[in-house]
Amino acid sequence: MILPDNETKVDLLNNEAIAKTIIALLRERPESPVTIGVHGDWGAGKSSVLEMVEAQLEKDEKVLCLKFNGWRFQGFEDAKIALIDGIVDGLLEQRPALRKATGALKEVAKSIDLLKVAKKAGGLAWTAFTGIPTPDQVAGIVSTLQSWLSDPAALATKENIDGAIEGVKSVMTPRESKSVPREVEAFREAFDKLLVEAEVDQLIVLIDDLDRCLPDVAIETLEAIRLLVFTSRTAFVVAADEAMVEYAVRKHFPDLPETTGPRDYARNYLEKLIQVPFRIPALGETETRIYVALLLAGAELGEDDASFGQLIEVARERLKRPWESTALDSDTVKKALGDKAEKTHNALMLSDQIGPILASGAKGNPRQIKRFLNTLLLREKTAAARGFGADIKLPVLAKLMLLERFTPRLFDQIASVAAVHPKGHCQDLASLEAFASADQAPPAPIPAADAKTSKTADAGKAVKEDSAALQEWKATEAMCSWARVQPAIGSLDLRPYLFVTRDKKDFFGPISTLGHLSAVADKLFGPRLVVLGYLEELKQLKPAEADKVFEAIRSRIVGADTFDLAPEGIAGLKVLVQAQPLLQARLVDFLEALPKSRCGAWVVSGWQGVITEGSCITRFEVLLDSWSKAPSSQELRAAAQAVAKQPKGKN
């Protein structure tokens, strides 16, 4: 069961409301030209909105709706010519009688020929013809090109200018030559006549995937739109991420005036072209849960199933007022699906479990949600194919994948511990889940009579301090939010789940595929004088191998959870980083994560020749300063203050 990641006419997001609004606006005054923008991040559903617009306009014979995808034309020919040619070809295809017409069609064809000639002189010739982004007035395309010859800063070569002039002369006699504004107006009049002859009340052009194009292609397409945007009975609906279009403008016009600022200019460029902007909103928590449930239910039942259509209608009612509604529940689904409701049980459960954090992690983006679900289902099927499908529970896998997708560094920490635990557990994770759940619940009141007794008992109780990793997790709100997601997994055997997620990273390296690297890691837990002898051998490691050895040593040090004296493996870690300087940033990460309250003096010195890269030295000096002010460890504070007084380079 794989969820297709392409545009669809089946509306699971209630975006049909946007499509209907766009159509109403287009048809309100069909004789007036208009350009509408459908904006949103990649995967927000822009293409699906265009599909809905096109599907609803197909029923109106007086409306000709054409779709253009600039990304598909990228690299084949000039995008602006391709768009205009595509519009004319679409007219001829859907109105074959136009081929017998002589006047308007010939005039439009002649103008297109002029556009093709203008391209020979580069972007400025086209800019002069279409009027984008300026100039306001240009005497004429031929005289403009000739004037560039005397400009030492001209962007066109003499050969290009001569070629363009000859090309213009080949399609226009001197008697026919007009100024650029008149040429533009002549093209628009001829195109308007063509629409009359085609008996079209309104031509609507849907532009999709503009934000996927290279900057030059995106600008060329926008310039072609600008040429037609004031032609009566012509409308454009442009689907694009505004940020990507603004980036294209800045890349295409790198020498914008500093007084305006590139971002302001880029935004103005887009706003002058797009008269009416629509932005597709990100999904909230309730909407995400409904969307996930519909996706999975549709995959089980089939999108053409009549009962699934009824479920969509129920969901749309709730999506109309999501701030007041709840997600789909079992009773609602049973009423809509009847006997088929049982098939969607897992879909509802999974949407309830992962909907809240997926809404935040995926930022309400439908494509990211689909990709997450596809990866989840594919991994479940892979486990079944390999013979351990019974060990995989979707809610557990989904919870781990949420962390893997949105907080990968913390996922690596949990995975590294669970992979080497004899039962696949991560005890710190179990503690975090208990902490996060308790943090949500109000504390139980203590009776006044027992308050003194309770405090005395607590004072005498020896409480083991949290490990360095657990302290970090508790201080990270995203980690606590994730830990609250059900089910709790800290006391489960996570090894089957880590094995099925190893398409990105192998956490069982020392046990299985690392081979000789496991022995290398073991060597580095010896005395300093011994591990120094492995320096040359460590230099021969590939970066990926060195990274795995570092992680193996770091995990064992953190797992030992003893930092008052230099732990076993620190000497080996230093020698490894000396041999592999690219690991310096990871070493500083490790030092920053150590608990200040339980670190001895060993941590402040001995890094000369190990930490040598400028940014890492700066980070270590900041860390040294924080150690020198550590209130809970007098030994660490005194040692750090002593080192800080020494000349730089003596640590």
Summarize the structure.
With 651 residues, this protein is mainly alpha-helical.
Number of domains: 3
Total beta strand runs: 5
Tertiary shape: elongated
Q: Which structural class fits the helix and strand makeup?
A: mainly alpha
Report helical residue fraction.
55-70%
Beta-strand portion reads under 5%
User: What's the rounded overall pLDDT mean?
Assistant: 76
From the alpha-carbon coordinates, what is the Rg to the nearest angstrom? 33 Å
Give the low-pLDDT segments: 120-149, 152-156, 167-178, 451-462, 510-515
Name the strands of the widest sheet in spatial order: 2-3-4-1-5
Largest sheet: number of strands, sense, barrel closure: 5 strands, parallel
Alpha-carbon distance between the termini? Answer: 58 Å
Count every helix, treating DSSP H or I runs of 4 or more residues as helices. Answer: 32
Protein name: NTPase KAP
Pfam family, one: KAP_NTPase
InterPro entries: KAP_P-loop, NTPase_KAP_P-loop, P-loop_NTPase, QatA
